[in-house]
Amino acid sequence: MFKAILLSQTEDKKTRAELLDLDESRLPERDVTVAVEYSALNYKDALAITGRGAVVRSWPLVPGIDLAGTVAASRSDQWKAGDRVVVTGWGLGENHWGGLAQRARLDAGWLLKIPAPFTTRSAMTVATAGFTAALCVMALRRHGLKPGDGEVLVTGAAGGVGSVAVALLGSLGYTVVASTGRPQEADYLQRLGARRIVERGGLASAGKPLQKEVWAGVVDTVGSHTLANACAQTRFYGAVAACGLAQGGDFPTTVMPFILRGVTLYGINSVLVPNEQRRDAWALMAAHLDANLLEAMTVEIGLSEAIAYAPRLIEGQVRGRTVVDVSR
């Protein structure tokens, strides 16, 4: 038996989230069984648990798009008992049973070895949020953005993806500007690496299709008007990496930034990413994220607390990363 959060649907299509004891026979029929040690609570997980977003596509379902732990059993020659692994994306917590449980059974191709110096816990201080941030930074670097080219904007900077993006860009030597609606987090963001803070209100409302050139690059976790304004303010031949929709999934803009300034918009998908690219992203984080900074942006909760904690994350009451110890 193992403990897991299980999501089911009521007759009136409402989501029911329960912490239950499940038998291992309930696990999917896949190649590798992992003894999960830590998971994480992300915005998408919170939407699934509360039923506020159309995240879950298969019922019943264990949520959790991230997990880290030790291989308990394997029918694949790629993995053996005792291997320390991390899994993010691949439809976990959406189409497949995920990481908010003490056991998971997974396809062999979904697993990665945890790279040094990460542990199972510290791997979850970054997890999908850090991986997504790393993919954004990799896109900007491939575009040719270099430290010294100008200011790089990070929107939703106090959230999970934003926090890691600020820390990663700052460590790489970029001049980071953090946008947030939580001015009380200014000291926190500056400790992570932000040179200055801008209030999100100036970006969150409808703006002109082409505005004063400000940003050499952008990591946007917000979408909607914020993304539109960020594009409108990006300099000639600059780049914007878009990875989130905290404000909304709409994109109310024009083609002007793209055809008059040559701005490039990169869409970042962190779910279905080839393992080679995943390893590159984890190597970037391993080399350039300071363990003390990671700890500063992390709060830990137990599996038994995750259901009650989820609404706080959606309502913007949580900063940084939330790690879930599934043993308690």
Provide an overview of this structure.
The chain is of the alpha/beta class and 328 residues long. It is 30% helix and 27% strand. The chain is built from ten helices and 15 strands. It has helices at residues 43-50, 120-143, 160-171, 186-192, 201-204, 224-232, 256-260, 275-288, 291-296, 306-314; strands at residues 2-9, 15-22, 32-40, 66-74, 84-88, 103-106, 112-113, 151-154, 175-180, 194-199, 215-220, 234-242, 264-267, 298-302, 321-325. The strands form three sheets. Strands 3, 4, 5, 6, 7, 14 and 15 form a seven-stranded mixed β-sheet that branches. A hairpin with a 5-residue loop joins β1 and β2 (15-22). The longest helix is centred in the middle third of the chain and has 24 residues, at 120-143. The protein is globular and about 60 Å long. The model has no long low-confidence stretch (mean pLDDT 94).
Task: Give the tags.
328 residues; alpha/beta; six-stranded parallel β-sheet; 10 helices; 15 strands
Rg value: 20 Å
* Principal-axes shape call: globular
Q: What is the makeup of the main sheet?
A: 7 strands, mixed
Uncertain stretches:
none
Terminal-residue CA separation: 15 Å
Portion in beta strands: 25-35%
Which H/E pattern describes the elements?
EEEHEEEEHEHEHEHEHEHEHHEHE
User: Helical content, roughly?
Assistant: 25-40%
Number of helices: 10
Average of the residue pLDDT scores: 94
| Assembly state | single chain
Counting helices, strands and paired strands, the structural category is alpha/beta
What is the number of beta strands? 15
